[in-house]
């Protein structure tokens, strides 16, 4: 079994975490590709944040996460295929996924 490197720390990715208390993680997409994501907060209501379009990535959601976390939301932000640290499968277009 191949060992997967841990996801890069959010401070390494984004610099200042802007008041968010988040942890990085890998998600596995349906096609087997790893997607970089960050998770923070707790509560019974989940919020999922995705960039509107490239070149957006999880770093752009940190200010919103800093607001949602203390309000009692469990928040997940992720990078699309081919953005941030989410790899794009060879020969695929980032917007071809659906």
Describe the overall structure.
- 12% of the residues lie in helices and 27% in strands.
- Strand 3, helix 2 (62-68) and strand 4 form a beta-alpha-beta unit.
- The protein has one domain.
- It starts with 9 loop residues before the first helix and ends in a 20-residue tail after the last strand.
- It is globular, with a radius of gyration of 14 Å.
- The longest helix has 7 residues, at 62-68.
- It has 98 residues and is α+β, with helices and mostly antiparallel strands.
Main β-sheet, in a few words? 4 strands, mixed
What class would the helix/strand composition place it in?
alpha+beta
Mean pLDDT: 82
The counted number of beta strands is 4
**Computed CA radius of gyration, to the nearest angstrom:** 14 Å
Q: What strand order characterises the main sheet?
A: 1-2-4-3
Give the uncertain stretches in residue-range form. none
Number of H/I helices: 2
What is the rounded distance between the termini? 28 Å
Which terms summarize this structure?
12% helix; four-stranded mixed β-sheet; 4 strands; globular; 2 helices; alpha+beta; 98 residues; single chain
List the helices and strands and how they pair.
Layout: H1 10-14, E1 22-28, E2 34-41, E3 45-49, H2 62-68, E4 73-78
Parallel strand pairs: 3-4
Antiparallel strand pairs: 1-2, 2-4
Summary of the model, kept short:
By secondary structure, the chain is α+β, with helices and mostly antiparallel strands. The protein has one domain (10-28, 35-86). It is built from two helices and four strands; from the N terminus they run αβββαβ.
